[in-house]
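Researcher: Please predict.
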Amino acid sequence: MKDIDISIIVVGYRSEKTIVPFLDATRKSRDGLNKEVILVDNYPADKCVELAGKHPLKPKIIENSENVGLSKAFNQGYKISKGKYILIINPDTRVNGSALRLLFDFAEEHPVLGAVAPMLLNENGKIQPSVFMFPTIWNAIKHYFFGVKHSFNKYYPGNKTTKVDIAVMAAFLVPRVTINQVGGLDEHYFLYYEDIEYCRRLHRFDLPVYFYPKAKVVHIHGASGNFSGHLNSPLLASAKQYYGSSYFAVLNSVLWAGHKWQVLLRGKRFRD
């Protein structure tokens, strides 16, 4: 049996409307690779699993009886995967053209690799900022008080291959040997910050993360989210987990002061 080049692991949550277009685009991908698709579904109340099971791609399916979170679900999928490379990808994405082949070839040419991420595009074709620097207190100060571009928020690094601190995990290719070395996703993170923590871990192992814009993936940002407000979102808990209570408190103070400073500056400019 031919070895599998890429295991595509997609975690579903309220993905009934996105899973079939995702699978259709993956099936049409012009890559010539031997690949498998693994769906780990965290929302048993919709028809995502039923629809995926009927699709011609015939993905392997793990159906959880409850939402176990993104990190744990990915790790479940990884345990049954067989590919040389693992593509972590959202169900609200569409693989564009030969993106899988481009990511695969890039990884083959870089034996020392943490991860490689494609350019993300909105549905209208507009580029979606998808990389950022580590969100530290110092980087927040540089952004809000010294006007240093790209020091804190997501940005687009330009149309060239670039080493970055962090790439979002909407589409994120990792060699199996890398996961075996540094481990899977940290299951302390239910949702959010798992990409930041993982990229930080990769850098600690001196494994670079690349932004590779030749490969393109459409990302319908936030299509699977369903939180009524910030306090109901896992974002807050994940942030506290990542930073620790003391650092989190200081960073929040810096962000609050920075926002007030920016408002003041805008007021001064307006009066001038």
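Model: The radius of gyration is 19 Å.
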